[in-house]
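notes to self, project folder thing:

trying the whole complex as one job this time. last attempt i did each chain seperately and stitching them together was a nightmare. four parts in total, labels are on each line so i dont mix them up again. if this works i'll redo the older ones the same way
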Amino acid sequence: LVTDAGSSSIGRFANYTVFKGKAALSVKPILPDIRELDSRSSRTYRNGGVMLTFWPAVGQRKYDWEKKQVFALSPTEVGSFIGLGPAESCEFFHDPSMKSSLEGQVKKSLSISPLSNDNGYFLNISVVNNIQKTNERLSVPVTKAEFTVIRTVLSYVLPHILGWPQAMRSHQPTTEKKMSKQQG
Amino acid sequence: LVTDAGSSSIGRFANYTVFKGKAALSVKPILPDIRELDSRSSRTYRNGGVMLTFWPAVGQRKYDWEKKQVFALSPTEVGSFIGLGPAESCEFFHDPSMKSSLEGQVKKSLSISPLSNDNGYFLNISVVNNIQKTNERLSVPVTKAEFTVIRTVLSYVLPHILGWPQAMRSHQPTTEKKMSKQQG
Amino acid sequence: LVTDAGSSSIGRFANYTVFKGKAALSVKPILPDIRELDSRSSRTYRNGGVMLTFWPAVGQRKYDWEKKQVFALSPTEVGSFIGLGPAESCEFFHDPSMKSSLEGQVKKSLSISPLSNDNGYFLNISVVNNIQKTNERLSVPVTKAEFTVIRTVLSYVLPHILGWPQAMRSHQPTTEKKMSKQQG
Amino acid sequence: LVTDAGSSSIGRFANYTVFKGKAALSVKPILPDIRELDSRSSRTYRNGGVMLTFWPAVGQRKYDWEKKQVFALSPTEVGSFIGLGPAESCEFFHDPSMKSSLEGQVKKSLSISPLSNDNGYFLNISVVNNIQKTNERLSVPVTKAEFTVIRTVLSYVLPHILGWPQAMRSHQPTTEKKMSKQQG
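result (full assembly):
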């Protein structure tokens, strides 16, 4: 299989990637921005999410990472994804230039629609750029097994991108105590 | 989106918030009270729970945190929430003055009822205060995707508010051993 | 509510308890016996499980911990519990004296049967002791919400009582490295 | 019960084993290969998986570990396993000599098919070796309860074999800070 050669190694790197005939799809977590205010308090400044990256096939088992299109799912969109019933579909719309002077010039959409006979889903990203006059579209069919993997890791990661495990971690009396002994 | 500006930063802070036309709803974990008796034993003195906070809209995308109403779900009420079927509803009643001289003077209720066509749920908090002669009611419609997020984080947090992960953590031979080496 | 006053504080203590008219039921994890062979290997010598404790009501909101009956669910019995369908029932049989000279003299059984109208389950423990000529039976009706709590914490704890999280923990390069620096 | 005497104690050892009339089946996690590049970044070089080991009965409650056959499930095959519906079946094919000169000489297959009346599944491994002219087949019936255990631990372990928890762990401000204090 072709490896995800173009991706960065900065930060903790983990993903789940499927390679299909016309494009590849990679799913990876986006960490929340949690800052420590002092030794007893922290705050989630920005929720994390889940990054979907599509990049096209340019030959047999060759994929061009430079032509990738990304879609960052918010926690609620992750909820929509993992709650999707067998015959249901959903579509999300993003404007990467929202609240800038370019607002409305680039339209991104991600659609998830069921394949026939309960065999999985079709994931489709569309990016319409009115400034560059481009219209990119990449599609990846995902089998039921692959969708189960994505749903399982998304269910796992959802509390993490909202910062809940980090918040629960404050109440570990043993570790706290031992730590302070070490520092004393 | 409007941020949760009025909330405290003391403690580990994490929540999931939805902003709707008439009110906002925030969901966050309440930590259990676990105390260490000695280096080998600890005890959960009080279970945690999940805090629901409702606060009203006072203008377009403006919400008044000072007028918030809270409802603390017990572990069993969390179980009722996450086990709710598509067409089911449930209602909880709390008396914040229970076992005090004001018992029965304030009646809080939280109801969860399905929206039509499997499109989510309606969360409604009602606080009747016989002393102050007030009757507050706040309602937030929650989409199916948002409900999936809440259900997922509640399922995640349920063992934590009962102290189970903290109890399981005692059996980590490696850490224990390394820790004692460091202390020696 | 009556607290679980008779239980031991040795070890990490966590449970989930319901108090009903005729008896109380407490659910808590049993830790696996994992031993470290050296700094790079460990082994699960004995799987953990889940301990169910029933003890009878002896007055209004008073329960007699001295008359408790216990039933330790194996991992597979935990699987049977959490996989139980809405109208299904199951029954487990244990012989606490198995492989001793008293084998067959004490017969314990735990049955889980659905209440009418999808309203929860009836948990029933029976202990027939042929030596002491006793036949104890304790029953606790568990609501759908309480059953959801038990099922959720049992699903959470199942990998832990089999030692899987402990096994996965060996592959944390960062911690390992930092730990060894501290020891050097 | 017969213990898993032939298995190695190197590494963190955890499994779930069922012993049946004609063979035993053991399920255990395969750790991913995650390497730390520097103190702030790591990378998953190879995903983990789940190892299924079948070994035959050679007498009453005696099993011959030397005659074991193994099948390593990939993350996507784990997804296929845990997403299996009550009446569904699936089959996986592996070539352990893929990309070597012996490619195609050994054919391994694992099939999972439902038992009658929703009573569990039949797991069957077949290894056809054209060089040694052997055709080994081992089968284990798995009850619904046992299948629930396997599905639960596989759902738990799936994010871990993809390296997601390890990636999320980088964002623990408290630990990071305390660690650096200790090292300073």
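what i see at first glance: Chain C touches chain B through 37 residues (CB under 8 Å).
need to look closer tmrw
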